[in-house]
Design a protein that fits this description.
Elements lengths: L12 H14 L4 H11 L3 H13 L5 H15 L4 H10 L4 H14 L2 H12 L5 H13 L4 H8 L4
Helix pairs in contact: 1-3, 2-3, 4-6, 5-6, 7-9
Length: 157
């Protein structure tokens, strides 16, 4: 049974905190995503700030940890270059300094060259110039820079 909260209780700080906790239970989110979600549902700027402060103090919101987990998961599921991962992290609302620190740490764990080689291996046999061009385009779309693409494609040409 779903109980609707009306009147004064509907605007209580607990309502917004519960809303944010439910959102975080469904999926890991950045501070910016929670702020946008609360604002879109009608929370005032002061209510949004209060909820974000509370969630941060409870360690439910932590953009640094979010970015690290996001980067690790993304690189594991879909090898990509620095440019693509940066674009994706910025799109989540992670602040730029956190994104740059995350990229630095992520690519210390695994090199872009190794990730690019994974893409080439997954792409399959390279039997024609068209196949090489297709793989080079795929690497570019995945955010690998030209030097990395040349490095991994060189032996294949």
């Amino acid at each position: 049974m779903v109980r609707r909260v009306t009147g004064k209780a509907a605007s209580s700080p607990d309502r917004w905190l519960q809303f944010a906790v439910r959102a975080l239970a469904r999926s890991d989110r950045t501070t910016a995503q929670i702020e946008r979600s609360l604002s879109a549902k009608g929370a005032s700027p002061s209510q949004v700030r209060a909820v974000v402060r509370r969630l941060t103090s409870l360690k439910y919101l932590d953009d640094v940890s979010f970015a690290a987990r996001w980067a690790d998961r993304r690189l594991e599921r879909m090898p990509m270059g620095r440019a693509r991962l940066q674009e994706e992290l910025l799109a989540t609302g992670c602040p730029e300094p956190i994104v740059h620190a995350t990229l630095w740490a992520a690519y210390l764990k695994v090199s872009e060259r190794d990730l690019a080689m994974q893409v080439v291996t997954m792409a399959g046999r390279i039997s024609s110039p068209q196949a090489r061009n297709r793989i080079a385009r795929l690497l570019s779309q995945r955010g690998f820079d030209e030097d990395t693409i040349e490095t991994v494609m060189g032996p294949l040409m």
